[in-house]
């Protein structure tokens, strides 16, 4: 737009036309098994619901600034099983989470010891579908120590494990993560190895683990590369996620990748496995996922409150599902 152009009401009006990708995937359902909604807005929840995302998993992670006390972890874990679940429900999306000590903050051993003490208070809560995201960042001795301790915790609780593989020296870190899991007696079918790329996928699949891929702009994986991986390796035990967080990321990465797969000739059946069913099968081993709840959560009433708070701010009007059976 020319700098001399004066903005009109028409210029400032929101764009309401559906993007092309939404038309391609109309009617499809998606499960994003790794997205950090704590860092996202309600607009993102609405956009995800409009794009067909029916359920998500929010792993506990590093918030971008080192935490200084165990109570900040306690409050964060409580928000994942409380407020964030409520906020998601207000947009018709079923919310689950995984709970764990992230690899970066495992290096603060004084704090890590305290976090390990409170983890058993949270991993058995309703809606917690695994221990995660845990693993390696810089592959330090402290990260190794707390990764092993949390594998034991997951084994005792019979929960799936969501592994964060390192950005630096990824192949070595991924191999090491799998080796240690086997050493601790965990079944590869209970472990989701995340943030894979072309360098790691073959070994992860060959060894019987679930292979997750994060579609994240400029860093982890673009969706054109993801299409080629599915063409080469098929859809068995492969899943994709957005890992959308406080960085430059896209909470619509799963539906957008589904649209691209469709455009480039991947079958509907394979798309459904990679973008929906495989994640359900992997995390449902927790005993916490009931797909019938994906429909009941769509009965939205934004008049509801959680501990006295609602998603509505100021004078905003609530959205109430007129098709809901229950009338309040």
Can you offer a commentary on this structure?
The chain has helices spanning 9-12, 20-24, 42-50, 70-81, 83-89, 109-118, 141-157, 170-183, 201-206, 223-233, 253-263, 268-283, 293-296, and strands at 30-32, 53-59, 94-99, 128-135, 161-164, 191-193, 210-214, 238-241. Helices cover 38% and strands 12% of the residues. The protein contains 13 helices and 8 strands. It starts with 8 loop residues before the first helix and ends in a 32-residue tail after the last helix. The protein is of the alpha/beta class and 328 residues long. It is globular, with a radius of gyration of 20 Å. An 8-stranded parallel sheet has the order 1-2-3-4-5-6-7-8. Helix 11 (253-263) runs antiparallel to helix 12 (268-283).
Helical fraction equals: 25-40%
> Which overall shape is indicated by the principal axes computed on the Cα atoms?
globular
| Count of distinct strands | 8
Q: Which regions contain 5 or more consecutive residues with pLDDT less than 50? A: 1-5
Q: Beta-sheet strand percentage?
A: 5-15%
The span between the termini is 48 Å
Mean pLDDT over all positions: 92
Strand order of the largest sheet: 1-2-3-4-5-6-7-8
Write down the secondary-structure element order: HHEHEHHEHEHEHEHEHEHHH
State the helix count.
13
Q: Characterize the biggest β-sheet.
A: 8 strands, parallel
User: What integer value in Å does the Rg equal?
Assistant: 20 Å
Structural class: alpha/beta
GO molecular function: hydrolase activity
InterPro entries: Metal_Hydrolase, TatD-like, UCP005295
Keywords: Hydrolase
Protein name: TatD family hydrolase
């Amino acid at each position: 737009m020319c700098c001399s152009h004066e903005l009109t009401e028409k210029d400032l009006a929101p764009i309401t036309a559906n993007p092309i990708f939404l038309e391609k995937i109309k009617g499809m359902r998606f499960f994003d098994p790794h997205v950090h909604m704590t860092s996202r807005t309600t607009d993102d929840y609405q956009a995800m619901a409009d794009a067909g995302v029916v359920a998500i998993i929010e792993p506990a992670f590093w918030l971008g600034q080192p935490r200084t006390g165990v109570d900040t972890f306690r409050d964060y874990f409580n928000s994942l099983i409380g407020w964030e679940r409520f906020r998601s429900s207000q947009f018709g999306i079923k919310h689950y989470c995984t709970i764990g000590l992230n690899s970066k903050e495992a290096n603060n051993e004084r704090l890590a010891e305290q976090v390990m003490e409170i983890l058993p208070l949270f991993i058995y809560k309703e809606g917690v579908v695994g221990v995660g995201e845990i693993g390696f960042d810089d592959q330090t001795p402290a990260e190794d120590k707390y990764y092993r301790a949390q594998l034991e915790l997951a084994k005792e609780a019979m929960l799936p494990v969501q592994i964060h593989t390192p950005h630096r020296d990824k192949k070595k870190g991924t191999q090491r993560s799998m080796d240690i899991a086997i050493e601790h007696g965990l079944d590869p079918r209970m472990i989701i190895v995340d943030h894979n790329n072309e360098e790691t996928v073959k070994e992860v699949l060959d060894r019987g683990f679930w292979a997750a891929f994060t579609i994240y702009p400029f860093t982890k994986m673009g969706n054109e590369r993801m299409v080629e991986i599915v063409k080469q390796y098929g859809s068995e035990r492969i899943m994709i996620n957005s890992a959308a967080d406080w960085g430059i990321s896209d909470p619509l990465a799963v539906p957008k990748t589904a649209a691209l797969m469709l455009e480039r000739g991947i079958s509907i059946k394979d798309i459904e496995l990679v973008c929906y069913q495989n994640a359900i099968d992997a995390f449902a081993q927790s005993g916490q996922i009931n797909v019938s709840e994906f429909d009941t959560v769509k009965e939205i009433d934004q008049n509801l409150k959680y501990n006295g708070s609602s998603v509505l701010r100021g004078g905003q009007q609530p959205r109430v599902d007129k098709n809901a059976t229950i009338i309040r």
